[in-house]
Amino acid sequence: MSGRNGFNRRGMIAALLAGIAVASCGKGGDSPEKPAASANGVEKPVLKLGFIKLTDMAPLAIAQEKGFFREEGLTVTLEPQANWKVLLDGVVGGQLDGAHMLAGQPIAAAAGIGAKAKLIAPISLDLNGNAITVSNKVWGEIAPGLPKAPDGKVQHPISAAVLKGKNLKFGMVFPFSPHNYELRYWLAAGGIQPGYYLPGDTAGTTGAQMQISVTPPPQMPSTLEAGTIDGYSVGEPWNQAAVKKKIGVPVITDEEIFKGNPEKVFGLTEAFAAKNPNTVKALLRAIIKAQQWLDADGGKNRAEAVKILSMPQYVGADAEVIGASMTGKFTFAPGDTRDAPDFNVFFNQFAGYPYYSDAIWTLTQMRRWGQIPTDKPDQWYFDTAKAVYRPDLYLAAANELAEKGVIPKAAIPETDGYKGEQSGFIDGLTFNGKQPNAYLAKFTIGLKAGQTVTPAGVK
User: Fold this and answer.
1) Which of 83, 215, 259, 421 lies 20 to 30 A from 33 at CA?
2) 85 domain residue, yes or no
């Protein structure tokens, strides 16, 4: 399956303008419906799932609106959450049966530094999808010195080195978020120390040359406009919202920082999965079908997806803003729209498979910045990843779909759960999930073997 979606931009725009109403099989996230008839032996056919208003919740919205949940005997309510902590608490407390979740949330729980619950991630929802945006003021200071391409546009990727010596404040969405690790990775690759976490600390500002704090995704543009922060790392559509409002400029996408970056997962408690195995399998089948629909035939369905996501019960942003990143392009500034066919990947490139190595990469960043306060042997990384990422559950659902001809067999990887040596990082380093400590030793900025963080600094 190719990740090069080859979107037809003009066709997408025409389709967006062709209609306003969205014909819905799922009837939206909060419409009352008669429960679907129990099928496939599902133990709990009526479910409530949480999400944050971001475009990468698309697999859940599509599974609802295209009827994939109901095909699997499920009646699902999709409920937006105020922020990632509220969402996590809802899953742990049982108010939500599962949720669109930051990859780092269940991983942190498994590492003993997050929620005090056993969470699992049986499917990855997407790859890539984030960007880092700076205010107009910051952009005005750095843009004149940036190298230009022959067409006069700024060359990408832009190194964080251009921010050296500036005392800036950045927002990101959650301490255990890919957005946090991407921002820190980018800053460190540019020679800027983003700060370390003390044990039990959620600020991570020890030794920092840039201040990084938590801001809920939908509040990012208004917080930037107010001058409370100078930039932010967030998913779409909130980078494009800054462009639309002319208050900021995206300077780099996460694909330019770490190509194929693991992003969101579908998370739920281990207890729920153990009690409701057929329900979980039905959920996964529905989500996989939605992921395939999103990436089908070079992105032919993305225009319809944009209209669905713009509905108030989902992301609720203007279709034009959502479409600026969901249709194979990414707008960095007015007049600077570039091809970005892999900005959002939902099904291609085995995006749904929960690779142990993806979880291990996230764990290495937790250790790099002190969230994991002491050294861990390689085996600890392997065991922790296997406790939370559950490819066995993914394969059980995916193989059933392949046997029925719903998805191609070639869309399911033949793997031991680890990707090969990965490149595509902005600092030129490579990552091998089977050698986490060797990977950590490669970084110039970050904790080394034997180091811990104290209020006085690293020792």
Assistant:
1) 83
2) yes
